[in-house]
Amino acid sequence: MSAGRLSFSNITALAPMVRVGTLPMRLLALDYGADVVYCEELIDIKMAQCQRVVNEVLQTVDFVAPDERVMFRTCEREKDRVVFQMGTADPDRALIVARLVEKDVAAVDVNMGCPKEYSTKGGMGAALLSDPDKIEAILRKLVAGVSIPVTCKIRILPSLEETVSLVRRIERTGVTAVAVHGRFKDERPRHPVHCDYIQAAAQAVSIPVIANGGSLDLVKTNADVDEFKKATGASSVMLARAAMWNASVFNSGGPLPLERVMEEYLKYAIRYENHAFNTKYCLCQMLRDKVESPLGKQVQAAQTNAEISDAYGLQAFYQLTQEQLQARRDALQSSSQPDRPVLDGDVTTMAVRFERREYPPQITPKMFLLEWSRREKLEQPLYETVQRSQDRAFQSTVTVADKSYRPSLWEKSKKFAEQAAAIVCLRVLGIPEGRIGEEDSGLVCKRKREGKANGATTEEESSKKRHVAEIRQETSESPVVANGDHRKPPEQP
């Protein structure tokens, strides 16, 4: 193997696991001593539609689907040790995906062992075991077409002879290594692993064979890894469920308390904005028989990473991380966006953000825009807000006098997004917006600016109620929506 290429000899690897092998778990496994980490199986058709996006806020590389879902996220920390596993049954499509990711991963792997329907339909996963010609075509195409190592992961066939014949044929394609899960296609984790089959495969080829399937009864701690390796005669070992239950199985110093492992996992999930439902799923797998404990029930009830952080007492870490990410986001956006109006189609945009501290307690830009619209006898401002799936940020567009205005920056809440949109409109039109130190424009009277000392309803709420009453006096026939609050619900990720 040339210098710099990933070696699969004498390694311990995190196995590919659907819904588990996302970035937080991979980084955690590396921290505890894993030599190589595999991502979860990702289907070629979905990956081929993705766009590679450098996420400067998270400092990651994201592969984003047309619906804005992040299908695969990686970072510099794992670049030379992460293996991208794909589900495929088509050589050409496999090559498209491999070339898409090859600059960001250490190797690509083809799943030929998963027996689940989502993988076998379309001829992928374990379905490939009955089509060795296709196996060979896919692997040869990949080996010839990419600059990084190519591997595959199989299950054993009904006989030793068939298994040996397959791994020898796989070796001739030029792959760097082959992982062998020591169970038949119709067997499940409760069935014992067939070490003799893995041993026969390892003795039949010169490339590294990675033994998989020992988590049931052979590998409980890191001390058992060498025993599993000896029992199978394999060069390396790949761990799935044992790592899912407690990733410190890779720790040569012995297992760590599960509470600590879960907290370290959650910190990575927060740091890299892992999807909350994925975070929850992985934590529940770690809890296992304690999933119905008070902690388990709190985790299951959580809907966001913030709520999960509350369950583990990591509120301060969550808040600090959010502030750091927002500061990085602000710095990047302000440096790349001009603070002057820019026409984006038929919408005027500006790089502005709503800073609450710049306005008196009872004053907001929306209030000023509403009062100005009334004075000019215009229809009330119309706000439309969307939510971005990658980071749950909001962006609003306001329409006034048939012209639309939008901030180019995204906000942390729907309310702030609408205020930012109002700011863009006011600044473009040269209208006061109510900031502290601004001369009195007469749009909002002194009493409104000072508010009520007893802390009653906010001025914007009072304005809304008064305006509703005025319109109802004029007509009782048409429905009224006050304060321009004609907003669409945020788009769901």
From TrEMBL:
This is Dihydrouridine synthase 2. Keywords: Flavoprotein, FMN, Oxidoreductase, RNA-binding, tRNA processing. GO terms for molecular function: flavin adenine dinucleotide binding; tRNA binding; tRNA dihydrouridine synthase activity. GO terms for cellular component: cytoplasm. The keyword Transmembrane does not apply. It holds the Pfam family Dus. The keyword RNA-binding applies. Its cofactor is FMN. Residues 484-493 have a biased composition (Basic and acidic residues). CDD domains: DSRM_DUS2L (cd19871), DUS_like_FMN (cd02801). Residues 364-431 form the DRBM domain. Residues 447-493 are annotated as: Disordered. The lineage of its organism: Eukaryota, Metazoa, Chordata, Craniata, Vertebrata.
